[in-house]
Fold each of these.
Amino acid sequence: MLDNDGRSHRSLRERLAEWTDEDVAQHQLGLVLGVLPPLLEGETEGDHFRRCKGIFWSANGLGDALHGALMGLVDVGLLEQQPDEDGTVHGASALRFVPEPPTEDTPGR
């Protein structure tokens, strides 16, 4: 289902239910918040991502804010980062929502 601006009504939780590359996760967050340029008529989200990728791949206020917001969701336990094969997590790792929302006893709250 699309609204008048061509944006999907899917929640961020739905959009990030599976492991998603961080730049794509930033795009999904930007779409949900409505802070990215609107989709053009007939444009897919994939095409829109490619048109907006400079926001996520370079240092700028909007890209930095979207990254910071996602990392904030990681910090409070709503999103998790996929570790590399050696168990480390790096800044460009994949993200997804945790299957169960955190409780008051969740570390980091």
Amino acid sequence: MTVQTKHFIEPSDIIAVRIDCNKCNASVSLAIGKELTLNALAICPNCKRPWLKRGDASIDLELQKCIEAINAATTALDGWKESSKAAAVDGFTFRLEVKDDLAQ
């Protein structure tokens, strides 16, 4: 017999994004829905090693877009659920499947 477990989340289940230092393993969690200051992520707060390359090749703009997209998806889906209920439409639930780290 084979047993398979799958893990699903809704965008509203995402409460933070976590960044782990590859050098010292320190971590920083950034709350979703809060204003972010990605400049603070230029270096690890523990070992002071650089995390982000500053300038044109930086990833910080893409990180900001990702977090904004999660916020926008959550807001849009919450609004859609409310309007569906008001219109007596069953609709659907949007979920993301996440990999099971325990299996690795």
Amino acid sequence: MKIKLAIFGANLRDQSKGQFIVHTADCADCAKLRHETRHSGEYASLLEVSKDIWSDMINEGSMTAEDGMQEIHFAPCVKLPYAILAHQNTVPK
């Protein structure tokens, strides 16, 4: 199942938690970040978010989606599994 997320970054005023902050699109905390750069999309896993954010660098081979996770802060409202196994369409245990 995919949920709509709001992704703020990369030029956040406060990067103490990472270059990007991710909330569910309907989270009230999004209003606090209204002055930050934002884009949104529907995602099924945290790793899918990282793949989207860092797609250029991943395609260049300079990083992996797993590496990019270090620079993404997922707010508590984001309740997604880390990854989905594509061949089984299930959450790894």
Amino acid sequence: MAFIGWVARILMVGAAALVGNYVGEFIREPRQEPDDVKMGLVRTSVNGSSVVGVRLSISNFIPAVVFAYFAGPPRTIAAFLCGALVSALVGNRFEPGS
């Protein structure tokens, strides 16, 4: 039971960091068209079919998760705030392949 709680906390912190990154991207560029959004669940592949998946910005996600564990409880709020702050200030500048 303790293992399930541990995994659930890790998933909650990861989800909060992703949502923070998503919010921070719209804070940085609020006038994006829906087709220009870099993060999203549904994308169109090269051959025209729809693909479902999350594009994870490692350069924004990792600092949010690390900060959340150093900040202490409530870690989900710290992950969200740090994810939004890093994504709004840094963007995808340090992302490989951008």
